Queue: 2 jobs
Job 1
Amino acid sequence: MLFKNIKIIDGGFTAKSNMYVRTEGPVISYIGKKEPDKIDGEEVYDGRGRVMLPAFYNCHCHVPMTLLRGYGEGLDLHRWLTEKVFPFEGRLTAKDVYWSTKLGAMELIASGCASISDMYFFIGDMASSLDECGMKANISHGISSGTESDIRDMKGYKDTMELDKRVKRGEFGGKPGDGSDSRIKADMGLHAEYTSDEKLVRQVADAAYEAGMIVHVHASETKKEHAECRERHGGRTPVKYFSDCGLFKNQVQAAHCVYIEEEDAEIMKSAGAYMVHNPSSNMKLGSGVARIKELNEKGLNIALGTDGASSNNNLNMVEEMHMAAMISRGFTLDANAVSAGNILKMATRNGALCQGRKNCGKIEEGMRADLIVMDLDRPHMQPDFDTVSNIVFSAQSSDIVLNMIDGRVVYKNGEYLTIDRERVIFEANKSFERILGGL
Ligand SMILES: [Zn+2]
């Protein structure tokens, strides 16, 4: 596909006008001011009045929780989980997860997302569902302590290894082998400190190391979790305790990190770990404000995520960028606490790196063609004086008119090219009614 006369947000996160961008197969093959030689039969996209930017990488999500949207309002994290979420989730079937994942995928695609890091269960069904939509995803099962004492007997571990086999067979794209360019990847998921014992944390650390997987975990989301961990583990914070259990010998992405302390940030920074900032969820559940200005200045890797649709209540990364920028400023009394360019980078390039996708997340020759186009010809996007600032502070997700993942257009001018919209909404509501009826 050849995009012409289009504004782009380039690899350095600055805007450039009147550019040509060519994608061939899954890759961006040309970027320049000069019109490249024609290729017979190539689709040409007139980008006048539009801007191309990297698609978003949503690094902490529970996409099937779209079914729980609006269910369990007004409760803090611990009451919300035990009184509402866990009983509902106990009735979910593989089929429910398949359709609720597609419902989430529609929302993600329309709001410019290429890829998610997701933690849930029935992960094989999620993988098939997301793959059919053309999305990328790092999927983990949120492993927690239960009746089995050996991780190898746990369903979460077995499902993770089974998904990894499918990835390495090349079922989700990329060459069969190490799964490096696979659209879907398997991560090792540890739900949280408060849902696991020390033996399990050590087993997760070793199993991920053996499999060469990223570890996805919740850490220091609430004050209560952080304080109770200190009580349970001889004064140690969740991050320090995880570190003592060997978790950080792996690539780690830790969601929330609202209450992480100086030493925690040092542990994570020296391990090259990623903190995933979830500002909407942290605000909605009354969990608190993560100190991203300070942590960003310290050089900690930060990516962004929406969390699930039951604690946000949407999966919209445009809104998440806006929220992240706003609260970082309002709570530090600093009008440039984290720059708009930095916020955009967290939502794109940092997210791709967090998922171990080094060739994604930037509009640059040789990178994977995960890109979106926004319409600038909208009242709230004019004048187009500072495009990056407009994207973070003014844009609406409805400004997105095209979403291309690995060179394949999955969404154009409001139409889904990989998803049957009516069927998905029907099936998801059917699942919701059945579960609700049984509770
Ligand atoms: Zn979460």
Job 2
Amino acid sequence: MTLSPVNSTRTSVLPLEMEREYPILISGYGAEVIDAEGRRYLDAMSGGSMAATLGHGRNDLIEVARNQAKRISYLNNEWLTNPWAEDLARELIEVAPEGLGRARFVTGGAEANELAIRTARTYHVSRGDIQRWQIISPAQSYHGPTMETLALTGRPGLHGAFGPYLPKHLYIPPSTTRFDETGKEALDALDDALEEAGPETVSLFFCEPISAAALPAYSPPNLFWEGLAERREQYGFLIGFDEVVTGVGRTGDWFAANRLPIVPDIIATAKGLGAGYAAIGATLCQNQIYETIARKSESFSLGHTWDAAPLSCAVGLAVIETLHAEGLVEHVAYRGPRLKNELETALIKTDMVREVRGHGFLLGVEYADPRDGFSLLPRELGVAGRIDAAAERNGLLVLSTQPTGDGYAGDQSLFAPPFTTSEDELAKMIERFAASVAEVAAEVDAQLDNRPEKSSP
Ligand SMILES: Cc1ncc(COP(=O)(O)O)c(C=O)c1O
């Protein structure tokens, strides 16, 4: 077994980042993970991707998976169904926002988002509205690495070399407190996009209700959501929410949509549904969307091999039962605001910290140039990466995002621990995170003191 950290010259895996030294993690329990050299880290990112909402090494979920695998692990769902998929759909609908009465299973977030797009298009075509295909979405987002989901973000840096394969969509800029505090400019941009597309051709407005990695824990003001709902009414497009991260409890509600003054037509969710114990996602739609499609078509074709497999659905069902039995969504709702305050208090002394925001156990920290407390930090300082590296040295896993080329987002960190993290672990996470940020901020201050001028965002 390989035990020491590997880089691209010492691995047979094609790594995501060639220059990085990858620590090798071999086990985990609760909110703690252990590397091959025996070092322990607190996992403030729920497995790195925010999926491991119930922590690592849960014997009850492992037992469910083991028993299900022994009974029947896999069946394709094209010609038959199974009790675990049926029960999971019912349970999910029970906790979903009003009217979302049908669910279909896939294996992850990007697939759930793609299914949301197919559902919207099938609905319009079923109604004879065949000209509706275009999608409008906020540019600063992340919806997955498949060509369609990648195209939904308007971030050329993320598109990289794949531009020629990506379908063209319309984007609006984010209404962050930095650019558009009220949400009015985002609505104006939406109006422009609708006009550019021709509103009768628009199928879907697709977005994260509360952003995950792209703008950690940010959600536009109510004015935006209310204006979006009015435009849906006026122009007839659908609204789809990417709740791949926020769904199944992360923000202290079963779905983040419940926190907003708008009910979506379609929701895609994934990570927390399998809680890191199974690869599963789901797309939910409003009853009237299902009924329209059902009236017109005998089938809703195209699926993946592992859709609604007994193994993943049984685990999903056990995850939902655990959330209910342990009152974890309520716990996240109750504990989240205090966690945010504690993080704020720990970071307040650091000038480089501009904002701490979020809901439940999805918190975001935004950094700014300490010389004016507002401008984005110079990109070349690589602050996000340095914070993650400092945290790792201090025994903590967090995830920070680098500034984007278009200036929509600067250096930011996500803080998203498992719902089951103990009080003692939460306190240690905050302490280690604040120490890591302070360490990098002191270096940055020294570097900026030597710089003649503030660089523009
Ligand atoms: C908001 C959001 N949507 C979609 C995805 C893609 O999900 P997956 O990696 O399961 O395909 C992610 C993954 O990080 C995400 O954060």
